[in-house]
Amino acid sequence: FQFQEHAFLQFLGLDKVPSPQKFQPVPYILKKIFHDQETAATIGISRDLCYVKELGVQGNILRLLPDQGFFLYSKNLPQASPCLQKLLYFNLSAVKDEERLTMAQLGLDLGPNTYYHLGPDLELVLSLVQEPHVWDRSIPKPGKMFVLQSVPWPQGVLHFNLLEVAKDWSNNPQKNLGLFLEILVKGQRDSGVNFQLEDTCARLRCSLHASLLVVTLNPKQCHSSSRKRR
Amino acid sequence: AAIPAPKVSCKNLCHRHQLFINFRDLGWHKWIIAPKGFMANYCHGDCPFSLTTSLNGSNYAFMQALMHAVDPAIPQAVCIPTKLSPISMLYQDNDDNVILRHYEDMVVDECGCG
Which residues contact A191 (CB under 8 A, 6 or more apart)? Predict the structure, then answer.
């Protein structure tokens, strides 16, 4: 029973059998979309496969891209520098040319949302990297800033809409130099509790997890649904 | 006089045959997160003239079976899927991306003569 593995992989849109080294965590939203679709198919409810109801966008392929960037360490004294500086990088090469981007949502998980570790308020700065990172310079020259936000900590997952940025990266891959994330500690929420800056920053570095949820629509597979909707 | 209906055993008649492909048998459980496998059901069986009206058949199948009864050189109506459903696959690729894709009309739910 020689299963035509290669033919089936091609049918799935893959050119060879993936051999991931470790399983990435699957976010709740992808599991929910998967189970909703499986349940609908099992009970015979037909759903538009080219519309992601749970996200309110058109699309039939959802990809969660892990951050492939790295932490940066400033040469200044800890008190004078941000708590955390990280270059975030997402590889968009998996998105095929014919696919149309309909959503790109950056997820910044700052750690579990628990009240046992009340932390200081944080100031979060996110900017585009517009020049290649030069190694002898500790941090990349930040380009256009598009998030400057104060957040109480713990905070759980923060989401930012990166659709226009991702479209630009997808159309001009050489522009994709990543994002520059800086997190500063903004004093303390409860003056009675003394926060050790260093271990606060160490905890933040350990818990930070960034990912980019990308939804695309493949017009070759989705023309029929638009006709149905018409 | 009614044409004596050929004694056709039920199991030869057109119906859905269930076939489950377990991804573990293919070693694909190492990269497919969900589901554990998928139903590769298929349609198979005869579409005799006497039963085309009951085998979930189309009008076309009835006419084709009628013509086959008159001239055996004309092929019989065939056993085909009449209801299909999609599957969703959650898997990981070589860049550690987690991908969720929907594939339309993948699973045969019902068969009939067409």
Answer: none
Q: Contact, A105 vs A211, CB < 8 A? A: no
Q: Can you give the pLDDT at residue A228?
A: 47
- Cβ–Cβ gap B92/A66 under 8 Å: no
Neighboring chain B residues of A39 at a CB cutoff of 8 Å: none
Give me the phi and psi of A23, to 5 degrees please: -75, 130
A62·B99 Cβ contact <8 A: yes
d(CA B76, CA B45): 11
- Identify which of A209, A202, A181, A179 has the alpha carbon closest to the alpha carbon of residue A78: A202
Q: Is the dihedral of CA A27, A28, A33, A37 positive or negative?
A: positive
Residues of B in contact with A41 (CB under 8 A): 85-88, 107
pLDDT of residue B68: 87
**Cross-chain Cβ contact A38/B100 below 8 Å:** no
**Chain A CA closest to residue B28:** A17
Q: Which of A33, A42, A63 is the mutation pick for testing B, counting most B CBs within 10 A?
A: A63
Backbone angles phi, psi at A169, to 5 degrees: -65, -40
Please check whether residue A51 is in contact with residue A114, taking contact to mean a CB–CB distance below 8 angstroms: no
Higher pLDDT, A222 or B29: B29
What pLDDT score was predicted for residue A188? 45
d(CA A216, CA B38): 24
CA distances from B65 to A44, A177, A215, B68, B80 (A): 30, 65, 48, 5, 14
Q: Are A140 and A87 in contact (CB under 8 A)?
A: yes
3-state DSSP call for residue A181?
strand
For chain A, residues with pLDDT lower than 70 are 1-3, 74-81, 113-119, 133-140, 142, 154-155, 187-195, 224-230
